[in-house]
Amino acid sequence: MSATRYTYLGPEGTFTEAALRTLPEAATRELVPMVSVPAALDAVRSGEAAAALVPIENSVEGGVTATLDELATGEPLMIYREVLLPIAFALLVRPGTKLSDIKTVTGHPVAQPQVRNWLRGHLPDALWESAASNADGARLVQEGRFDAAFAGEFAAATYGLEALVTDIHDAENAETRFVLVGRPARPAAPTGADKTSVVIWLGDDHPGALLELLQEFAVRGVNLMLIQSRPTGAGIGNYCFAVDAEGHISDRRVGEALMGLKRISPKVRFLGSYPRAGVAPSEVRALRPGTTDADFVSASDWLARAQDGRA
User: Fold this and answer.
1) For labelling, which of 41, 157, 226, 302 has a CA lying 20 to 30 Å from the CA of 133?
2) Of 240, 245, 295, 280, nearest to 65 (Cα)?
């Protein structure tokens, strides 16, 4: 395995590359762009790279399905950290292009909902066609296949383009969450501001089946930060659920919730426990009474005494 190589959703000039370069260790790693999320993750599975940074959630569009599906299937991988990156687009064009010249535009499919209103107001007749990534859209503009691309302003120099318009976004404070993914290993120690990610499969379909899964978290006071359904490919109505929960697998409430899920779900895939980006332990909300580790230990001790006739 190459311990010094990190892959990411390329080509050069993507928001993913910009997010990866915010990590301190990126300065000492070989950063290799890949053509797709599956390609970036497969390089980790094969040992060609130690880790991959890929997008997993957008504050406007929700979960990035390509990443969620890849993490739910195939050889298991684990999330070790997350990065939050504010997102604003620039309209990149070949030098000399005016707004009135633009008939075709491109960008990643996730970008379109984030600039839809701007497009409607400024380029209502422009034809949109999706690209593999925003940076790949910039490359296609460079090659003359499109008139303009929505991408990060930082991508302009890489592809010999200029930013005709900058700071484009329909939603204020839009951001994308990226995750650094590696091969399974022991999770890092809890920080006090952590997140645990799992994928859960439904068993037989019956009224309240999903509620039964979610109650394993609720009764133990575990807050859910994301839940997204994804088809399993086994036919209409067959779904698994990607879940992000507050806390670390070593927290008693989280560990017992995962054990509860394992009892009633045909399959649970642990994706990792890792520090939450941009959140300090002091900013984490207080746990409700009865859900701290001390409460779980006390209850366990009481049960042991009861079994011994000492309760």
Assistant:
1) 226
2) 240
> Other CB atoms closer than 10 Å to residue 151's CB: what's the count?
32
Q: Is 199 exposed, middle or buried (0-12, 13-18, 19+ CB in 10 A)?
A: buried
Please, which residues have CB within 8 angstroms of residue 301's CB and are 6 or more apart in sequence? none
Amino acid at 219: V
Query: CA of 73: how far to CAs of 40, 152, 201, 271, in Å?
Result: 15, 31, 12, 11
Tally of residues, the chain: 311
Q: Tell me: the pLDDT tens digits for 183-241?
A: 999 999 999 999 999 999 987 777 888 899 999 999 999 999 999 988 877 777 788 89
> Who's near 114: CB < 8 A, 6+ residues apart?
58, 60, 61, 87, 89, 169, 170, 171, 174
Task: Take residue 292 and report the two structure tokens written for it.
Answer: 């701290």
